[in-house]
Each structure stands twice: as C-alpha cells, then as structure tokens.
Amino acid sequence: MGSGGYGNSFPRQPSGGGEGWNSKSAKGSRRWGRKSRREREEAPGWWGETGGGMVAKKRVLVVIDHSARAKHAMMWALTHVANKGDLLTLLHVVPPDPHHHHHHHRGGGGGEDDVPNLAKSLGTLCKACKPEVEVEALVIQGPKLPTVLSQVTKLEASVLVLGQCKPSPLSCLLRSSSDEFVEQCISKADCLTLAVRKQRRGVGGYLISTRWQKNFWLLA
User: Fold this and answer.
1) β-strands 159-163, 216-218: how paired?
2) Is the pTM of this model over 0.85?
C-alpha cells in the first residue's frame, strides 16, 4: 500500500550508451507489439533491463556442441548475460543424417548417446554454477543455421550466444564453415547475437562480436 510513490524513487539506470543494442530490438522484434505482456519490456537497457529498474525475464539461447569454444561461450553467457530468473536454453543441433558424419564411437551404437548427454551434462554444470538461472537443454536434428534461426524466433530469445573460433593464419583467404555460420547468425537472427571467444592465455578477457562490433575486447 502506498508503494506507488516509492517506486519512482529508484534511480534510473543509465543505459550506458546502449543505443546500438536497442536499435535491433526496435526493428528486429516485430512480435513484441503482439503480446501485451511484452509491451512493458518495450525498451530494455543492456540485458533486457527496463527503465523503471524492473528486470524483464529473458531467454538466453546458447548454441552448444562438443567444442571447447562452445563451452566457453556457454559459461560466458551464464555469468555475464543470464540473470536471476532468466532462462538459459542450451541448443545442440545434430546433423540431419548421422551416417555422413564420422562418429568417434568405439563398438556398438554408444556414440548416439553422446548427443543428449552433452546437452544434459552441460545443463547440469550450469545449474551447479548458477542455480538461480533456469536451464533447459534442447537437442534438435536438422541443418544448423536454419534450425538455430527458427528456434530464436520460436522461443522468442532475447539474446543468442555463439562460440567463435580463433582466426587462423589463412582466415583472410579461407573462411571456415563455422565463421560463416557465426556471421550468418549475427546478420539474420531475430535478436541480439553475440559471438564470444576466450582470449588466449595470458591476455585474459573475451572478444565479443555483434552486428555493430567486431572483436570488441571485454576484460570481464
């Protein structure tokens, strides 16, 4: 009772020059207009923080696989992007036809079990590290890029986080398929997309790429 006036005394959080981040949400999220419960989340600050100090629950989607870079991206998303009450979705996209892929399984069909187990074990790791974040694991069979893009839209993700490879000496001549995948996601996904790469040992921090920044160095 009478808390209405009190609510206004919260200091407004400056959005830290985040106009670049917001321009996407205004343009890229046409769906926001459709749902009235989203209307109060119309102008999020950095990570979905609304002007009045209220924090809107958001869904952070991380694309995982067996690589170390995917695990680094996942842990970065967990520690830097997901807040209490947010939903962290680990998405593992499996190639449509397993026979075309060299499985490293020894003996009978044990290798197939690796797939759901990866998502499950990484999910368990996230829950142990940060229990206040809700974690879910999704394993979907299909072509990687279309599957990720459609899940972003379907799940109404606020942020998509991807692992990024180290640039190879030949990267100016040859683009790897994973670089191509990351760039396609950054330009096409219907939400803020961050590609994350852990800096080499001794340097510290992470390199972050978005639609607006390439290899932005975050010492966090």
Assistant:
1) unpaired
2) no
